[in-house]
Design goal:
By secondary structure, the chain is α/β, with parallel strands linked by helices. It has 14 helices and eleven strands. Helix 4 links the parallel strand 2 and strand 3.
Length: 467
């Protein structure tokens, strides 16, 4: 490999796919490069719970032979992927981020894993998560907190709960990863690691075989290095699953068909001015520049009056999550002998104090606000906000009683979809992110807007210095 030819590990999926299809890159070489980077970087970054190198190499060899014999399945054939350790693979350990489940062997395989295999993807291993996926900072007291690769001097938050997935993709240990999002758990790791993440609408991608936090709000989503990569992954992962009732009757999204149509003529609402209070100044400056850039690309920027404050819906989202998490995890978190994260245990236990009446009221409020929001954005194609109110913070400075999900939780509460894309860096070199929110099941629109923005910028091409 010449000095002018980048390592394949540094290329996005859509470029890797083209090279594999043209016979210019072997899946074996790609997987070997990813495994070598994992071996070199994992001791300092702590992104992976486990690495399945032997099986990954076997799968890469099989993909290589199949492709060379003219049996290429599609654009993801031979592409490596990291999988969040909530996703079950029969016969493998799935910890859900919990030390109490270190020996928990899965007895089933998630539908999503079957989708990956059907597309010819190569699973590299499992990535770290906040315990039970309940937290936005990305910390894990007992299994360890992955290191944000954008700061070599200070251990900063990787974002949660899909912390390891975000770090693995940012550090070029994997070109993409599986995340899950209940209140921001795909988008916050994407934001703080300088990469791209799609929060799909509930029911778009099956959750069967994925350890639940909130059955009402949980949804898997892709974490990758470009919008186009997320579109390719969405097309492969979506689909009706008889084992997941929420997927039934969903018309498939076709994001690739509209991806390159641009934003000219679209009406995009910027977040209300009242939401700017308390947001980091560099985050706001990057947001304003992004809005101006989209306007320059032909979008009409409008202001809308929303029937809520983002923070208010964050609290309502938390009530639903805690209620449903406690129903699943009560026996574990109420057993003080179990080694449970001191920050996570009270979040789950909070569900014990929420009555059935309060829980059902929260669900009813959700339906009413979904209707009010739909009225407020009539004629608008998307809503723009920052993804997080600050860049990544030092792990030592985290206030575990607070949440970084101010701008993300409301999206889950209203059953919308959203895309997080890099939109700048702080003076200290930390990534900043733009969130593009669209109606439920309109992932194609979010990806279209995001693609237009990314083709006009190069933030997604930046690489952390320490990797």
């Amino acid at each position: 490999m010449s000095d002018t030819t980048p390592s394949p590990a540094f290329l996005p999926i859509h470029v890797l796919s083209q090279r594999i299809a043209a016979g210019r890159l072997s899946p074996v070489d790609l997987v070997d490069e990813c495994l070598a980077r994992i071996q070199a970087l994992e001791p300092s970054l702590h992104a992976f719970v486990s690495v399945d190198a032997d099986n990954a190499r076997l799968a890469a060899e099989a993909a290589d032979k199949s492709i060379r014999s003219g049996h290429r399945i599609g654009p993801l054939h031979g592409i490596p992927i990291a999988v969040k350790d909530l996703v079950e693979i029969e016969g493998k350990v799935t910890t859900g981020g919990s030390a109490a489940w270190r020996g928990r062997i899965s007895t089933r395989t998630a539908t999503l894993i079957h989708k990956l295999h059907a597309a010819g993807m190569v699973v590299l291993g499992k990535t770290h998560t906040v315990e039970f996926a309940y937290g936005g900072w990305g910390t894990n007291q007992h299994l360890g907190t992955p290191r944000n690769p954008w700061d070599a001097a200070t251990h900063r938050t990787p974002g949660g709960s899909s912390s390891g997935s975000g770090v693995a993709v940012a550090a070029r240990m994997a070109p993409c990863a599986v995340g899950t999002d209940t209140g921001g758990s795909v988008r916050i790791p994407a934001a703080w690691n300088g990469i791209t993440g799609l929060k799909a609408t509930v029911g778009r991608i099956s959750t069967h075989g994925i350890l639940p936090l909130s059955t009402t709000l949980d949804t898997p989503g892709p974490i990758a290095r470009s919008v186009e990569d997320c579109a390719i992954l969405l097309e492969a992962w979506q689909g009706e699953d008889p084992l997941d009732p929420q997927t039934r009757g969903r018309r498939p999204s076709e994001p690739m068909a509209s991806l390159r149509r641009g934003v000219k003529g679209l009406r995009l609402a910027r977040m209300p001015a009242s939401e700017r209070a308390g947001v980091d100044a560099e985050v706001l400056a990057a947001f304003d520049r992004s809005v101006d850039r989209l306007a320059g690309l032909g979008a009409e920027i409008v202001d809308v009056a929303l029937p809520f404050r983002f923070g208010d819906l964050g609290s309502a989202t938390g009530r639903i999550i805690s209620s449903e998490a406690y129903a699943t995890l009560a026996d574990l978190v109420n057993d003080n002998a179990q080694l449970i994260d001191e920050a996570v245990r009270p979040r789950v236990r909070a569900g014990a104090a929420i009555s059935s009446r309060d829980y059902l009221s929260a669900l009813a409020e959700r339906e009413a606000l979904k209707r009010s929001f739909a009225e407020a954005i009539a004629g608008v194609d998307g809503v723009l906000t920052p993804t997080a109110i600050t860049p990544a913070v030092p792990v030592a400075a985290v206030d575990q009683t607070s949440t970084p999900a101010v701008f993300t939780r409301w999206v889950n509460f209203l059953d919308l979809c959203a895309l997080a894309v890099p939109n700048g860096f702080t003076a200290a070199g930390l990534p900043i992110s733009l969130q593009i929110v669209c109606r439920g099941y309109d992932e194609a629109m979010a990806l279209r807007i995001g693609w237009a923005y990314q083709t006009a910028t190069d933030w997604q091409d930046r690489v952390p210095g320490m990797v």
